[in-house]
Amino acid sequence: MKTGRTVRAWLIGIAVAVVVAVGATELRPKGAEPTLPASATAPPPAMALTVSVVHPEHVEWPEVIQASGTITAWQEAIVGAEVAGLRLAELMVDVGDEAEFAAGHVMGAKHVPLNELEEKLGAAVKNKTVPLILVCASGARSGRAVAIAKKLGYEQAQSLGGGLKAWKEANLPLEKA
Q: Rounded to whole angstroms, what are the CA distances from 160 to 4, 112, 118?
């Protein structure tokens, strides 16, 4: 299904390029050749059409992502796993308590309870330059956790807006400990 849309988009792009090229030559009157005055020494004008060739890649994702909307042939689409503008490829840390984490958490999230964050975050997340998304049930505790993480040097720390409640409402996957 995706391959059919990709082929259709390539065909539309090629058709548009052909129409532009044919239209440019057909607008000149028949038999008329472009002439420059004898005093003109300007170089010929540069081509106005630039074509970039992009080779598509085939990537298999372990999860199914559903999306809706339209895209036209001249638009570029970047598909990524994002929630509230945050890329999910970053490191996620659940700051909820043991019972909350065991009941369900974002897949792959590390668990560092809020009351242990200052002592244990450095051991759980060694690279302070990686984007860090902190998660809790509603977003309130993770908001406090962001302040602690930034104080510890994690400048790209952010809270998942709405917490696990919003995650569940968006029908995103959870795993249980």
A: 36, 15, 19
Asked, for residue 124, whether it belongs to a domain, the answer is yes
Ramachandran angles phi, psi of 132, nearest 5°: -120, 125
174-175/105-106 β-pairing? antiparallel
Range of the domain at 171: 83-175
Q: Residue-wise pLDDT tens for the chain (177 aa)?
A: 556 667 677 777 777 676 666 555 555 555 555 565 555 566 666 656 566 666 555 555 555 555 555 555 555 444 444 544 544 456 789 999 999 999 999 888 999 999 999 999 999 988 888 888 999 999 999 999 999 999 999 999 999 988 999 888 888 888 887
The answer to the question of residue 98 being in a domain is yes
What backbone phi and psi angles, to 5 degrees, belong to 108? 85, 0
Residue 106 domain-assigned (yes or no)? yes
Q: How many domains does the structure of the chain reveal? A: 1
In a domain, 165, yes or no: yes
Distances (CA, A) of 153 to 24, 80, 130, 148, 150: 58, 27, 11, 9, 5
- Report d(CA 96, CA 174) in Å as an integer: 14
- What CATH number does the domain containing 128 carry? 3.40.250.10
